């Protein structure tokens, strides 16, 4: 038995508005009304549909009345370039900008949102919205080839990237062929993901022992389990998430921001909270129901989630910031981009465009089944054959399949900022 993957019972308490306002209160320079003005205007007047969004609406609208009403009917046509108007959402954003946190968590927006969720059969209540939901936490950190790499702490899976980096740091990639390099990274991924499954949960309810998991000693122990043959992995499951937004920014003063947020699956729970225009998340389905395991459902507990992004410092100075959407492809993509950046010394765009691999189940989400190592087009045939000989179940996929990475790098000598954006999704690198 699992928590439903969509619908009103999959909704967790939304915390993103609290996060926005905490970030603005500490670092913001402009008024919220100014910052949200463009988004409000796009809601009222519409913005052009891009191909992936048009396809997603088309695929879901026939089965979910709220998506049909708020998105398919709100667009003149479901084709790229047609305008999508969201006047309800525009009003909600405008009210939050004018009245702040209480407009959402203690005001009429929150009341209408909870009422709509309950009318749909959910349990989210105004009491659930009380209290603080965003926290200021210290990032977790490791060193890799003399660089300091920072990631988000639990309930994020950021430690997984750091653990993988610690494991592969024991290998000299300059003396390895591509088959060996991919093999050790995939095996490192399997071992780090096993630690995630067994340990990651809300630290307020259990101790994930992150300091141990990102230690060099633990990495050495895990590295000793890697051999010349593919290793099986138990409890391997696929994440449902794929509706994530990532962005990174470096301003003229040198401030860097790495921001990632998500309602988890496409259109989250597929529940729109009445006339607020808010699409509710389905984060609750990240929980398990076995009370003996980490990340088990419990009142007041935050579900472990896939979101993670990174910053890299060199000799104490900012060097790079990056991240990606993509559920369980997030840490795998981040690992590969960092590897290309630091080991292969690629520029940001080359590091992003390099073909990727992804290791996960070959069966539908939430089901345990045969593992597959999927390789995007672009790897040489001898690489595919070599991985098969090492025991990997290899599958070739489209050239642009995994993640949607964004990356900014600061040249240590000149101070020049260089950026890259992934052609795998609607991403852009802009400087002014």
Short description:
The protein is of the alpha+beta class.
Characteristics of this structure?
globular; alpha+beta; six-stranded antiparallel beta sheet; 2 domains; Serum Albumin, Chain A, Domain 1; 16% strand; three-stranded mixed beta sheet
List SSEs in N-to-C order.
Answer: HHHEHHEHHHEEHHHHEEEEHHEEHEEE
Mean pLDDT: 93
CATH architectural grouping of the largest domain:
Orthogonal Bundle
Unreliable segments (pLDDT under 50, ≥5 consecutive)? 363-367
Question: Structural class, judged by helices and strands?
Answer: alpha+beta
Range of strand content: 15-25%
Shape: globular
Rg is 22 Å
* Major sheet attributes: 6 strands, antiparallel
CATH class of the largest domain: Mainly Alpha
Helix content: 25-40%
Written overview of the protein:
The protein has 432 residues and is an alpha+beta fold. The chain folds into two domains: 8-46 and 85-135, no CATH class; 140-240 and 304-421, Orthogonal Bundle (Serum Albumin, Chain A, Domain 1), CATH 1.10.246. Helices cover 34% and strands 16% of the residues. It has 15 helices and 13 strands. It has helices spanning 16-27, 32-35, 37-45, 51-61, 65-72, 87-99, 101-105, 108-119, 158-168, 178-199, 210-213, 216-223, 329-342, 348-353, 381-389; strands at 47-48, 83-84, 140-144, 147-151, 243-250, 256-264, 309-314, 317-323, 357-361, 371-376, 394-397, 406-410, 417-421. A six-stranded antiparallel sheet has the order 3-4-7-8-12-13. The chain has a three-stranded mixed sheet with strand order 9-10-11. The chain has a two-stranded antiparallel sheet with strand order 1-2. Helix 9 (158-168) packs across helix 10 (178-199), helix 9 (158-168) crosses helix 13 (329-342) and helix 10 packs across helix 15 (381-389). It is globular and about 60 Å long. The termini are far apart. Mean pLDDT is 93; it is low at 363-367.
